[in-house]
Structure formats: C-alpha cells, structure tokens
Design a protein that fits this description.
Structural class: alpha/beta
Oligomer: single chain
Strand order of the largest sheet: 9-10-11-8-12
Keywords: DNA-binding
CATH class of the domain at 153-289: Alpha Beta
Domain OmpR/PhoB-type: 23-121
CATH superfamily of the domain at 153-289: P-loop containing nucleotide triphosphate hydrolases
Helix content: 55-70%
InterPro entries: HTH_77, OmpR/PhoB-type_DNA-bd, P-loop_NTPase, Sig_transdc_resp-reg_C-effctor, TPR-like_helical_dom_sf, WH-like_DNA-bd_sf
Protein name: Transcriptional regulator
Radius of gyration: 33 Å
Number of helices: 45
Largest sheet: 5 strands, parallel
CATH topology of the domain at 153-289: Rossmann fold
Mean pLDDT: 82
Organism: Bradyrhizobium frederickii
CATH architecture of the domain at 153-289: 3-Layer(aba) Sandwich
Distance between the termini: 37 Å
Strand content: 5-15%
Length: 965
Amino acid sequence: MAPRWQSNNMTAAAGPTQDEAAQEILVFGPFRLVPSQRRIERDGNPLHLSGRAFDILLALARQAGNVVSKAELMATIWPGAAVEENSLRVHIAALRKALGDGNDGVRYLSTVSGQGYCFVAAVSRPDQRQPAPTNPAYVHNLPAHPRQMVGREQAIQDISERLRTQRFVTVVGPGGIGKTTVAVSTGHALLAEFGGHVHFVGLGETGNAAPVPAIVASSLGLPVRSNDPTSSLATLLHDRRMLLILDCCEHVIEAAAALAERLYQAAPELHILATSRELLRVEGEFTYRLPPLPSPPEKAVLTAENALAYASVKLFVERAAAGGGEFALSDANASDVGNLCRRLDGIPLAIELTAGHVGVYGARAMVQLLDQHLNLLWEGRRTALPRHRTLRATIEWSYNLLSEPERVILGRLSVFVGSMTLDAARSIAVTMEDDDTILTIIDGLVAKSMLALNTGPQPTRYRLADSTRAYAQEKLAASGDAGAISRRHARYFLGLLEKVSDKSDRDLSAATEEFGNIRASLMWSFSDQGDRKVAVALAAASIPLFFKLSLLAECELWVTRAIEAFDETTGSIRHGIVLHTALGAARMLTGQLDELASNHLNRALELTEKIGDIAGQIRLIDQLHLLQLFAGKYDIALSTAQHGEAVALASNDSLAVARMRLLLGISCQYLGKFAASRSYIEAALLQPGLEVEAHGRLTLEYPKRAQISLARVLWVQGYPDQAAQMVRRAISDVIAANHPVMFCRALPWAFGIFFWNGDTEDCEDHIDRFIVEARRHNLAILQMVGEAMKGITLLARSETGIGLAMLRGSIEKLQSLSFGAVAGLRMPLAEALAATGHGDEALDTIDRAIAEARQCNFMMDMPDMLRARAEALMHKSNPDLAQAKLSLVQALDVARNQGALGYELRAAIGLARLWQRGGHRQEAHDMLASVYQRFTEGFQTRSLVTARGLLAELSPPRSCSFAAK
C-alpha cells in the first residue's frame, strides 16, 4: 500500500487537460516554463535542459508544495522502463545546477528524506486560476489555504526565502493589507520543507491583556505551570525544526516581542513568522513590509483589458462580482476603478469594502465620495492609534454611510470574536427593537459589506472583519454600553454551553464553532469589569470543550481562576465538583503527577460525598486510582479501589461494583497478585453494560480495558495464545470505535503481550499512530510511554542506536515527572545494554529499576527484572556467574509464588543456559522441562520456541520428546 503522502494517481493530480495544456504557463522566480513548447526561460532568455530534466521539472512544478515520490517520478518520466534510482538522482542534480538551486539562499527543489522530492518555490500561472496546493500528508493546525488570494505570489516567495536565511521574519503593514492571508499561504508553501511542522497561533482573538506565552504554550500542548511559561517553551522548542506563525501581534506587542526574541535566541532550529501592524523591534527580526497591491498610476489611460493587469483592480472586480451587484468592468469605467484602487492605497480590505458598494453607487460616484473624505483617508485622527490611521479612513467612511440604527447594531455585534450565528447576533443585538427590525438591519449591514455572510454546506454565519470590529468596538465603548453587551454576550454563550451539557447525547460541535467567543467571554468575565458569578459558571460549563479540543493547559488556567473566585461568588457545590475534578484531571493528563492534582480530586470527592452523588464518587475514585497508578502509589491505589468497591456495594449499583472490581484487578496486577487480579476482572466482565462512558465525563470505562487487563494475567499465568487472541480482538475493537483517547489508554497495557510473544512488528503501526494521537490530544505521560514502546520495537529489530536513544530519552522524561512504572521500562533498556556489550551499565540500570520497584511495591515485573539482572551480571566486563545464578533462582522463586508461569519460563531458560555453560546439562534439562511441560498452548510463541530449542540441545541425541510440541 502506498504511503499516505504519495499520490495514488500522479497524472490526475499533476497533468492538465489537453485544452489547458495548450495554454499552460508556469512562472517561478525569474523562470517562465511553457510546457506546450517544451521551453523554459530565465529572465526572458532560453535555458537549455535535457528532455528528462525538463519532464522532471514540469512534473514537480505542477505539484508545487506536494511531495512526489521517487517511484512516481520514475514511472512518469520513464514509463514502462526499468530504471535505477541513480538515473533520477543524476537528472535532479543537473536540474538543480541549471536552476541555480541553493545559490544566494534561493531554493527550488527540496529532498524529503525517505519520501521523494518537493518543488518548494511559489508557482504562479498567468491568466489561469491556480489551484491551492494541498498537503494531505501533514498534520498541522494552519487555517485553510486562501483560495481567492490576488497578487501575493511574489510576496510569499520573498518571505519564504527570508525565512530560510534569516529565521525570523515579521510581516508588517496597516490593518487590512492581508498580512494573515500571506502568512497562512507562506505556511502552506513551506509545509513540505518543514516536514509538516508548521504551527499557527492566532492572537487576534485575544484581548490586550492576553497571557501570550500561556496561549502559545497551550496551543503547542505544553502544560502551563506558572504565570509565564516562556522558559518551558524555550526548552520544548530548543532542538525542534519548526515554523511558528504568531499572527496579529500588534495589540499584545510587548508580550509577543519578548516571547519571540527569547524563542529566537533559545531555539536555533526554530523559524518564526510574525504579523503585526508595527515592528516588534527585537533581536534577529527581519522586517518584511507587505506592500499594497499594485495600482494603476495616475492619469493612466486604462481599458478593461489592461486595467486587469493590476492586482488591485483584479481584486476589486472579483469582490464586486462576489457582492452580487450588476457591476461589470468596461472601458468606460476602467479609469474610475483604477483611480479608486489607487486612492485606496492598494489596501485589500479597503478595496473590498469599496467594491461592495459599487453596484449601488457606481464607480464615478464612489470616487466623488472618496474625494470628500480624503483628509480622513491619509491622516486619520491625531488621537487615533498609529495602526488605525490609514484603514480608519476607509472604515469610517463606510461607517458614515450607515443609518443610526445600523451603527448601533454594528457596535453591539463587535463584541463577537470571529463569526456568529444569526441566533447569536439577534440575541446580543436586540434591546428595544423588535425581531423583524433587527433582521432588516442585519441584512442592511450585509448588503453594505460591513458584515460578511458565509454561506455553504454549513449553517449560515456572519462575520465582522477584524479591523471593522475594532473600529465598531470603539464606538460601542464610547456609547457606554460595552459592559452590558459584554455581559449579555457572556450569558448567551454560558446558556449555549449549559444547553449542550443537558443533552444525554452531548455534541460539542456547535460549541467548538464558538470557541473564540467562549474564550472572549471568559476573558471579559474574569476582567476587572467582568462578572465573577458568570465567570465561574462559564469556566465550569466550558470544561468539556477544552478537553475535547485538548487545550488542557488553557483549561487549567481558567479553572484555577474560577476556583480562586469560587468563594466570593458562593458558587454551587456542583460547580465546585466540576472545577476541582477538571483541574486534577488536567494536571494529571499533562504530566503533573503532584499533590496538587491529588488534592483537587480529593476535594471533588469530598463534595460528591457531601451531596450523596454516588455516580460522581465512582468517577472520581477512578480518576484518583489512575493518578495513583501514574504516580507509582500502588498500595494506596489498592486502598482507593477497595473504598470504591465498598461505595458501589452500598449503593446496590452492579455496574459500579463491576467498575471498581476492574480497578481492584488492575491494582493487584501491579502488586504481583495475579490470581486475585484474574478473579476480580472475570467478576467484572460477568456484569453486562461495562461500556464506554466517556460522554460528558473525564473517565473512560469499557469492556476492552477489562479484556486487555485479563489478557495480561492470562499471559503471565501461561496462556499466551488466549492472551494474544483476546488483546488483538480488544485493540481491533478500540480502533474501530475511533476514539483516540480510548486507544491511547488501551495500547500501552496491551503492548506487553505483543512484546512477550515476540510480535512487536505486528503492533508497530499502532505505536506510530499512538504517538501522533497522544501528541495531538496533549496526553503528555502517554506520549512518553509511546516513545518508549517505539524504542523497544526498534531494539527488537536490532536498530540499536536509535532504539536506545529513544528509550533512554523517554525514561528520563518520565522519571522527571515521577512516573511510577518507569522501573518496568528500565528492564528492556538493561537487556539491550547487556546484549550490546555494556554489561556494567546494564547492571546499574537494572539494579536501579529493582530498587525503585521494591520501594513502591511494583511487583508485576519483578521476576523478569531479576532475570534481566542475571543477564547483566553475565555480560559484565568481569562476569559474575555466581550472582547471576542467585538472581535467576530468585526470579524462579518469585514467579512461582506469584503463579506467573510465563515469567517462570523466561527465568528457567536463563538458568538452563547458565547451567549448560557450566557443564550441568542434565540438571538444566530437567529443570527447564519441568516448567515447559506445564504449558498447554502457545508453542509457537517466542519463549516456548526458545525453550524447545534449548531442550533439544540439552537432550541426548536419541531423545526427541519435545520436538512434537
């Protein structure tokens, strides 16, 4: 099966139709490529390429921004021929030399390691509508690629080149000039070059006092543990090659500048693209002043045809047509349109606003109206902020065309961040006016291009342009109504969230659409002018949304503020339960396994006990149990589960009893009590209805969790085939459920069975997906566990260098978070070190693991740890065979006491080899045979195959009693 990043049909993706091919022209940098003539020019002069090099260039340029695999290129350039990859490399090298690729920092072709080649320069198609490049292989958070961008191709190419050479570029220009559009387009153009690691952080939806480092950290999935997580961000990004886009910095200029400078200094592989209406003025910044769209010069004689050569005119005509008016560009009005565009300074938003009225007033009248307000256009008010002066003229002129009711409603609608539904607009805008009047006014604002209407397959939404919104907000503030409208806005979205939470089949998609408004409501509610009672309720109601969006660090920020304000608002107990539960869960899932997380969960549990909420107690006991397991407090976790069972039994809730017995079974596994574990889990599985219960809650409970837990016990007790069948079926069902967090909870628990049976290759694809999902959902602990599993699988296929590095790195990170089960991960590390001749280091590693395990009573893997210690002793620079024998005997004893036949066999194999080495063949044979003969299945699994082979070596030549099994 082809990798995801490969095109399944290169011809369909890259090749134009026959008619299109006859007219096709591709332009990039100083080059002009005419496929129909098989001609390429540089600055108007022909450039000579071989036929193959020309075909390769054409194939790549047609898919600019996409990775094209080597196999596809060879199949297209040499169809039906058997060609070696070296031939492709030779032509690529010749092509690079001919284009001057790499000279003075200019780049056209990029090699994507292990994948293929990508044409990284911006490609334009004169007189053709260029399809937006797509990069379906990459997971990123960029907004959609703008599909109607006009006249910015060269700017994107210039910014891309500056980013390659300077690393830090700030796109500067007045409001409405298109900085965000250019930044997003640049991000899409560079996706392949950065391997998909392009991250967009929009600051335009935040207030002036927004905690910029916290917002950037939350967006990147970094836990916010202080008011200023800048140092943690610098550490996170230190060795990452990434393009970070900070959009709309002007209203938080000081904080954005300080953060950008620090990250630039601390992260040498980080590239930063910022947009702002003023310079950041910090070290490393290269300023790119985004120019206005080219406009016709004054007194130019224009026709409809030559006027369209100017990007500003082209934009004007496109937007006028999109407005649904009857305007058409003609020779008669071309000069007036050109004059309008020039007088509007080529600013795209100003042109768009003007074009929206041309169907009503006509181009000549628009010029006259503009002339009357020329002083406002150029100078603005002296008291205005610098970033508002130029665009303020255009906005104010449009604003003055509105009726007084329209101005009032526009001001009220400025409270919205991003887009809004009609219901939301009406709810916030209405006061004394009747509903029909409001609808009429909203329609009028749409008609006059002050309010955009987004139609399509999704429900209709309205949106104010950011600059128009800022201007209207000033008018709202001047009216004295800003506080009342902001309160109404916050209450509206509180009602929306509460309405969603009341539904049994909670669907957060509607709330997700309103995330910008919900965040703005939180910021206002917690501000000095806000309403603390609304703030607490809003923070509590928005928790499921933050968890759905995996913005756990930001959730922690708002919930912490809500808890601080809780006492002064005399909030409800249920709000307190939700807030404390969320804060404890958020800290746990972001890797903060501290007393604070435990204290908040315990506080929530106390509140549920106070009101007699049994279901809430069961959920919180589950959360506490998970936290205690993560933190390595296994005896406490067992006590927690026992308390939960008592609560469940007293409530006569059989499902709750089953859930708590599952927790008891898991606790017993960690403590090495496998018979008790199996008894508890089998009892839990007898209860029907142990199903997914993630809806509206912060726990996951499902029969697959119980099945995987039971499978582990079965393997340990000597039933590897049953264990493998059960765990494969469970993982398959979890994947089919398409619940990423459930998948991330299930796979680490199942991995041990794949590893013990020698089937790590079978689950390696699962591990790769696991790491992606854990990173995407900010599951810090689980992501590190996934990286450890990946390291173990690499070691299993003898990729020692990268495997050791990955496993070591994940262990160090988990150790820094006080993750309890890290001792179990040191064991495969010690085994790999011993196998590669680092016996002394292996012994230190496994001794540390055993000490850690005994300290917290982590007995689940103790027999295997003792076996691994024996391997390390035998691989020391001075092998200690006597101590190795003692460790193996101890491993056998512990395994027998635990009833862990699977571990007993692994220890017996090690001891038999040691005795064989000392000449005690018969003793070794008899001991290993006594363990092997107790198995009734699994004879094709790794340990049993190894044991059978060793028994054959130890047996007299005439004996073949084990060959049949």
